[in-house]
Amino acid sequence: MFFYVLVLAGVALMCAALVVLFRGDAAGLRRWVWAAVIVLVPIVGPAVFLLVNRSGRKAKEKIPR
């Protein structure tokens, strides 16, 4: 039973990361590289993407324009 919960959590995390990726401002090759990392490295790939994306967004907000 625990295995199914873990698989479901992994799939949900992967879907959430892909939605954030394709709704974001990443373009071209960078977007497809991240998509490959998210899909090919379960659990860790989506988690790393969401953490990097979150810190990148905060850095962009701090830059004065």
Tell me about this structure.
- The chain is mostly helical.
- It has one domain.
- Helices cover 83% and strands 0% of the residues.
- It has three helices and no strands.
- It has helices at residues 2-23, 28-40, 44-62.
- Helix 1 runs antiparallel to helix 2 (28-40) and helix 1 runs parallel beside helix 3.
- The protein is elongated, with a radius of gyration of 13 Å.
- The N and C termini lie far apart (51 Å).
- The mean pLDDT is 85.
- It is found in: Cell membrane.
- This is Cardiolipin synthase N-terminal domain-containing protein.
- It is a multi-pass membrane protein.
- Residues 13-52 form the Cardiolipin synthase N-terminal domain.
- The chain crosses the membrane at residues 33-52.
Features:
65 residues, transmembrane helix, 83% helix, 3 helices, membrane, elongated, single chain, mainly alpha, cell membrane
Question: How are the elements arranged and paired?
Answer:
Elements: H1 2-23, H2 28-40, H3 44-62
Pfam families: PLDc_N (PF13396)
Membrane topology: Multi-pass membrane protein
Protein name: Cardiolipin synthase N-terminal domain-containing protein
